[in-house]
Amino acid sequence: MSTLKKFFKDTIIYGIAAVLPRAINIILVKLHTNTLQSDKYAENTIYFVYAAYFNAILTYGMETAFFRFFTKEQEKGKVISTSFISLLTTTFLFLAIMLFYSQSIAGFFGFDDPIYLQILILVTTFDTLVVIPYAYLRVTNRPVKFTLYKIINIIIYAFFNLYFLLYVPYAIKNGHFVPDFIKMNFDQNPLVFYIFIANLIASFTTFILLLPIIFKFKISFDKKLLIKMLAYGLPIMIGSIAFVTNENLDKLLLSKYLGKEQMGIYAACYKLGVFMTLYVMAFRLGAEPFFFNHAKEKNAKESYAKILNWFTIIGAIFMLIIVTYIDSFAHILLGKDEYFQALGIVPIILLANLFLGIYNNLSVWYKLTDKTKYGMYFSIIGAAITIAFNIIFIPIIGFMASAWATLIAYGLMAAISYFYGKKYYQVPYDVKNILTYIIFSVVLSYLSFTYFRGNLAISFIFIVVFMGYTIWNEKNEIKQILKK
After folding, report:
1. What pLDDT, in 10s, does the model give residues 237-256?
2. Kind and range of the H or E run holding 107
3. DSSP letter string over 333-356?
4. In whole angstroms, what is the distance from residue 249 CA to residue 255 CA?
């Protein structure tokens, strides 16, 4: 099997790990929007915003550092053990300090009840402690096991969402069985509380299932190795915090300037962009270990160029399909009409996430040359744009400012990374071809959204035209990939 064919095969499996959980999450969006008022949906959003920040801080770039040093060091077990012990130590310090002060700082994080923050702290703890086991499965080419654990996690989360939000209210109303400890407390807590509990149960279960991976190896700790891993990973941590800011600060600022209701509406429509996010995530799950494992191969750079080309093609197709059928997706996923007023952000967010995926692919140069500080710089630039643009323009154009800020930030990050990468690690990307696909998809998406919205026949024609051009333009490459 060719290198690229194996990459695409593994990426499809990782795609299941990325798509199925998020697909179920998308279905749950409708459950949440149907059962929660927009202000409570906003509280649910705030919870996951802070979860993203905590995860970025608590992992401090150790996942990517693990990939880099696992492929460099001879003693693989020492890399696994050192990185896990490091995360274990810092995570339990975080757990102890945050739980001790949770009563006094819950209001600072925007939670009405300290229990929300306490659940968030516990969930973040368990999610951090599975980072290395998950990374080990990826770097050792075990996508099936990785996917299995991800699926188990989301099934548990979905089950308890359905149980708490649908079954328990129905059962209490109709006199069916509900455990006493749930029944006694159910009316005292808003439904959003039970979404958080479902998340905690799922995270704890996944932690228990993955823990045996760590105990397969001899427990050892190498201080010198840790120092090298921290030097590599800490700039990535700062970059990750900046990335989380790009992804989530808009929700917090919208809540501040426009109120929780408008933020909840924006956040619900933002999730229609999750289709592109899923695709980007699936590609990253397969690409990151691939980039490190194949860095020493003779044709590595040519492979990286082809991967980015195909990433862009498939991403452009995704964007076109979602935009041309946007009303159908909205009716299926959002439920209440009050959420539809922010649909205008979706095409912009889709294009922004496509640029984010391109940036992730381009990041191979600073990860392989150990110049991770550049990734930190690029992410800080993106975060600065996000903060400034949102603060200046939200009061003027509302939530559209947040969508445009995301697009500008990710587009500029991709461009800067490309030009710097040419200096330090030259990869023969076909920029003209990549830009052609992006522009072609944007033009067709714009025409569909602005002039032919809801016209299913025209939408279908646009998609066929784009895919026909792709097949004609890439016919030789397609033949090579399909060869045994």
Report:
1. 888 888 788 777 777 787 77
2. none
3. HT-SGGGGGGGGGHHHHHHHHHHH
4. 10
